[in-house]
Amino acid sequence: MTRPKSVSLREVGPRDGLQSEAPVETDAKVQLIEKLSATGLRRIEAVSFVHPKAIPQMADADEVWKRVRPVEGVRYSALAPNARGVSRALDHGFREIEVVVSASEKHNQSNLRRSVAESLAEFPPLLQQAHAANASVEVIVATSFGCPYAGDTDPAAVASIIEQLVDQGVDRVAFGDTTGMATPYRVQALLDAVKPVSKELPVLLHFHNTRGTALANILTALDYGVTEFDAAVGGLGGCPYAPGASGNVATEEVVHMLHDMGIDTGVDLDKLLEVAQFAQEMVGKELPSGVLKAGPRTRLSAL
Amino acid sequence: MTRPKSVSLREVGPRDGLQSEAPVETDAKVQLIEKLSATGLRRIEAVSFVHPKAIPQMADADEVWKRVRPVEGVRYSALAPNARGVSRALDHGFREIEVVVSASEKHNQSNLRRSVAESLAEFPPLLQQAHAANASVEVIVATSFGCPYAGDTDPAAVASIIEQLVDQGVDRVAFGDTTGMATPYRVQALLDAVKPVSKELPVLLHFHNTRGTALANILTALDYGVTEFDAAVGGLGGCPYAPGASGNVATEEVVHMLHDMGIDTGVDLDKLLEVAQFAQEMVGKELPSGVLKAGPRTRLSAL
Known about the structure:
Family (chains A, B): Belongs to the HMG-CoA lyase family.
Number of helices of chain A: 12
Radius of gyration of chain A: 18 Å
GO molecular function, one term (chains A, B): hydroxymethylglutaryl-CoA lyase activity
Strand content of chain A: 5-15%
Oligomer: homodimer
CATH architecture of chain A: Alpha-Beta Barrel
Largest interface: A-B, 54 and 54 residues
Number of domains of chain A: 1
InterPro entries (chains A, B): Aldolase_TIM, HMGL, PYR_CT
Organism (chains A, B): Natronoglycomyces albus
Largest sheet of chain A: 8 strands, parallel, barrel
CATH topology of chain A: TIM Barrel
Order of helices and strands of chain A: EHHEHEHEHHEHEHEHEHHH
Helix content of chain A: 40-55%
Protein name (chains A, B): Hydroxymethylglutaryl-CoA lyase
């Protein structure tokens, strides 16, 4: 059990975070992405190209991305639910695209109005479309650790989805703890189940801190050799099922813990905390990040 | 690396929690202790017998404990800083007493106005006093993982204190993460350092969730075979060094994670959540507990 020496964090505040907050100005979104790009973060989920009626918070995605000045060395990605979204992402120059399916039938029906099998059947043409443009596709498997409607997710169901995704030739997969139902036990059970079928497929874990377990879950995944995690600056994005509850784990809490453990992320924590402060002012409410509130452990008090 | 099958939680909300909140009525404190006693928790730190000028929140400790109807099978403890406090605790029938020293000279000077060596020298007569009354004494080593004034705590300094405490014949020791500076790395370093000197001494860990790491720290300690942890219902008690920041890890977050991992605590989570709700109303502000806000992972939403 050797923990990795470095971890690749993907910042999802501008997309997954802001999607669950009250709408903010286009200019603030551009600033947020550009400020994050200067922290040492090497991956940023910037926007999603979805129908504005479905997610009004992302209605200005085209405008946001037109105005962002991308930083060399940072990988930007966009979420796209269908061929039209993939076309928009490709036209804007994105070469990393995310699509979504839920492990839970009930959640997939509620979220996407189709069955899991129907969602999976839509991926091959999207893959073809993206690959033809030299873009890669990641499939986010939502509710991988539990579903707010159906309860526990059977790791075997997730493994079955992964088998199909490997056959389809997807480039990466992410396991989403959509409503913060993961615990170290669920992480172990999932990783044990998918390991035999995921082969060389790069795996990323996406935890919400809704019930306080996010960093314990990341610690567990590190022991399995997982090196890719999502996080959102400040802990942007609440939980749509529980008003006032936390959503995405805060990027600075992840960076803070990993750095003290001697695990590199490439991120400048002080710069990141400045962006977390900006994000908090942008959404106009207190964000749940403990490191934002208390400062890092190295920040001393006067006697 | 086998994790324990059960864990012994000590609830510290009524003492360590309320000590850092605005003062509440005596009757509410009595109710809190009695409600906690009915949740399956087997250990409760009930009060401290300190000078009312030092900690006005505990000025009514005698009255509180006179009115509490203790529940058979629950171990109640009291904190006492000196011979007078130990006498009060013994007179009230307490048979578990806690005394405090900081691993950090700066913190001990600031908190107790004496050196670490002076604090340690005061323990033998207190031990004698308690043991003569068939009471046991636990030494809480504050700032074991870091000090807000001095920074990192050297695990060797903590080990040196433990060696002296073993020689003195103390009954138990607790390592306090007084301002939430612990990370999994610090937990490993501390436990590695104290293991050779702590011998058969029972060890308890006390984490604050100030920077989000409390459950990751507990997970790490479980892998070292530690089975005793402090926690405070609702996450009562903030951080005196960072207004608005979290203090004690919430008991229900610990119970919630451990139960899902198949580790028994004896606690009825639903009953505990009712007490967390009561505690929140008692202090009249939102407590930081995620499980209180979002409910346990088993609480499903309607479609």
